[in-house]
Amino acid sequence: MWKSLFIAILFLCWRPVLAGPMEALRLQDSMDGLPLGSMVEYLLDHERKHEESTIASVPPGDWTRLDVPYRNFGHLHAPVWVRFALNNTGEQSRTVYLENNYSLTDHITLVEAESPETGRQILGDQELSAKREIRYRNPLFVIHVKPGTQYFFMKIDTSDLVTLALKVWDPVSFNNMMSLESMLIGLLFGITIALLLYNAILYFSTRITLLKAYCFYILFFILTEFCLIGVSQLLVKEPAVSSWLANSGFRLFLTMGIFSALFFMRLFLKLKTLRPRLDALTKGLMFALLLLGVYQLFDGPEANRLSSLGLSLSSIHFLVSSIVLWRDGYRPARILLLAWTLIVIGSGVASVADLGLIDGDMGQILLWHFAAGCLEMILLSLAIGEWWRQERLRRRQESARADAIRIAIQAKQDHAFDQLKKIIYPHQLERIMDGQQLEQTMPVGKALAAVIAFDIVASSQVEHDTIQEFMRQLFARCHALMMKNYQPLTLEANAYRIKETGDGFLCSIGYPFKAAEGKPLVDVAVSLAQEFVRVFSNCLMDFPSLQHLTCCCGVALDRVESFFPKQGVQVYDLYGRAIVLATRYEALRKELRIFTKESSYIILQDRVYQNLSDARKADFERMDLAAIGLKVRDDADAVVCYFQRIHGSQSAVA
Predict the structure, then answer these.
(1) Structural domain of residue 103, as residue ranges?
(2) Do 452 and 389 belong to one domain?
(3) What local confidence, expressed as pLDDT, does residue 603 receive?
(4) Considering 128, 148, 169, which residue would you say is the last residue of a domain?
């Protein structure tokens, strides 16, 4: 008896409050997602002082009327209470569906005011999916409205965005909408998955790093949308996994998607080569996103806001980088800019709404974002095609230039090299054709010669592919200088290339090829060393990423000895003290502090300097080795050396 009396008193206390000025939504025969809009009143419970048992006693003046169809409150970290009324003008009960069009809500509770115990439903991504009477990606309540007016309370308590996007559906309209929506979402996922598989096949066929970055970008985009629009809550039945996907997993996928997009953009726009400063900024953003990803794994506070901030900053960086490269004349950046614009607009609107700065139907915003992302993926595929076309054109042009240089230098030698499969000079071929043995085509024995040891400083610290192409062109031009003034009958030439030494080479002047008649031996050697440095600087102009490199030449004068091996492949070679000393003097750059990394150097043995003409001596400075306590290996008597410092601007030819 007392229990029944208590319930009756509680009902009488509630009804005057609920029957206040609040307007009820009149149920219609067909309700195709009818927004509650201004029919809703809400209360922000920042202090968490209200419960389901006390919310009915809150005075009407404390409630705020919703003045827009949809409201985004941002990340409140506090419950939002909602009250509304539904009016059934018919004579029989009606079943309607109430949807809040946003899937990432932790807890959302609906209480029927007249039956708080039996009319209570709890949904959300932190709740068991089995509680859902109808399986749908968004919170969807099934309400049985009796004839007349019924009052309801709703509590939204979530760590994510708090949004009011309440819609009322009749069952038929909802089923029609869900069928159409399922087809649309399935189509969007089908497009992105097809693009992922297609580009994955291309990557495994070509091993192009750009395609790998693009595949990761598509993968994380699919995972992000899988969680963001609530599909994960439909397909993943394990509660713990479903909850993780809707919270920490979603944020992690979003962060890694942005990271992959930055990686893709960095490769596509060739920022490392074309815009090093933008490349450095891109790598800084990527590092920050990796730290954010680790932070999100531990579900740190404000992870949602940090994700939105990272997305906003990266979106701005995408647009700025694409515009800069487009203005620089990089054609593939055009399509990339259009693709970025689409996704940036979609992501920007979603981020601003997520922060509560604008109102709108968040569910519709996210679906449009998904559609914009799919269109972006299609445009990016077109952009990759344009990038590959430009890349093939560039490679063909570089190959054509390389072929032209090689043909110009070795045109007279190609037939002999192809036929004999040996590296020989034209005069050797002529003598072999006259009946001589290979060993008789080059002088063998001892002689006085000047030797140049040429070396590129710090080349091992440079990317392998770039430095190899640079050295190929450089050595070809230097070899052309050595062969200048080549006279096959008298065996005269500027120099003889002894060997390449990885990132340098050795050459001799005066033997086995004689120096040009009438010119002092050391003058020819020093002049040739200066020519090598100038060619080095000119080659650097074609490789912007290698501008920091310098070179050094060591020049020594002493005896050398030439020979053919007794057994095996007959390769002509030289050895001797001059070769050793040239390498030792070139290595002095590592020992002397006055030698800077910004300049190239030519270092002379004292014997070379003393035999120079007076005009040549003026180019060199004296270095007192004894005064600084430095000894030259294999030249213990050396007390001085001479050097010339050459800056890039002094040696490069426009």
Answers:
(1) 2-169
(2) no
(3) 94
(4) 169
CA distances from 74 to 245, 255, 305, 352 (A): 20, 19, 10, 9
- At 296, the amino acid letter reads Q
Count Cβ neighbours within 10 Å for each residue of 53-62 and write b for 16 or more, e otherwise: eebbebeeee
Average pLDDT across each block of 10 residues of the chain; the chain has 654 residues. List them in order.
39 39 81 84 87 84 85 83 90 90 86 77 76 83 90 87 87 90 90 91 89 91 87 81 80 87 88 89 89 76 72 83 87 81 74 67 78 84 83 84 81 60 72 83 91 88 78 91 88 90 91 81 92 92 86 94 84 90 89 75 93 89 86 88 80 49
CA 404 to chain centroid: 35
Name which of 125, 384, 80 is nearest 244 in CA terms: 125
- Sorted by sequence, the CB contacts under 8 Å of residue 326 that are 6+ apart come out as 333, 334, 337
Q: Are 546 and 462 in contact (CB under 8 A)?
A: yes
- Looking at the DSSP bridge assignments, the partners of residue 499 are 506
Token reading at 472: 């190929």
Structural domains in the chain (count)? 3
Q: What's the gap between Cα 12 and its chain centre?
A: 65
| Burial bucket for residue 509 (CB in 10 Å: 0-12, 13-18, 19+) | buried
Intra-chain end-to-end CA distance of the chain, in Å: 106
Residue 450: give its domain's CATH number: 3.30.70.1230
| Cβ neighbours around 172 below 10 Å, total | 11
Residue 20 makes CB contacts below 8 A (sequence gap 6+) with 60
Q: Assess if residue 175 is contained within a domain.
A: no
Residues 126 and 234 in one domain: no
Q: Please give the Cα distance from 501 to 269 (Å, whole number).
A: 35
Residues 139 and 192 in one domain: no
| CA–CA distances in Å: residue 629 to residues 411, 584, 625, 645 | 51, 16, 6, 22
What b/e readout covers 123-157, taking b as 16+ CB neighbours within 10 angstroms?
bbbbbebeebeeebbbbbbebebeeebbbbbbbbb
410 belongs to a structural domain: no
Q: Examine the fold and report which residue of 376, 398, 420 is the final residue of a domain before the chain moves on.
A: 398
**Residue 489: predicted pLDDT:** 86
| CATH number for position 70 | 2.60.40.2380
CA–CA separation, 322 and 338 (whole Å): 9
Q: What is the CATH number of the domain that holds 241?
A: 1.20.1070
Does 495 share its domain with 570? yes
Is there a single domain that holds both residue 524 and residue 647? Answer: yes
Whether residue 443 is preceded by a cis peptide bond, meaning omega within 30 degrees of 0, is: no
141/196 same-domain check: no
DSSP type of residue 247: I
507 bridge partner residues: 452, 497
Domain co-membership, 99 together with 208: no
Question: Would residue 422 count as lying in a domain?
Answer: no
Q: What is the pTM of this model?
A: 0.56
Residue 464's pLDDT is: 67
**Distance separating alpha carbons of residues 315 and 40, to the nearest angstrom:** 36
Same domain, 233 and 262: yes
B/e letters for 399-415, b = 16+ CB within 10 Å, e = fewer, are eeeeeeeeeeeeeebee
Contact between residue 511 and residue 560 where contact means Cβ atoms under 8 Å apart = yes
Among candidates 330, 347, 332, 213, which has minimal Cα distance to 282? 213
The most distant pair of C-alpha atoms in the chain lies apart, rounded to whole Å, by 132
Report yes or no on 37 lying in a domain: yes
CA distances from 229 to 242, 461, 562 (A): 13, 47, 78
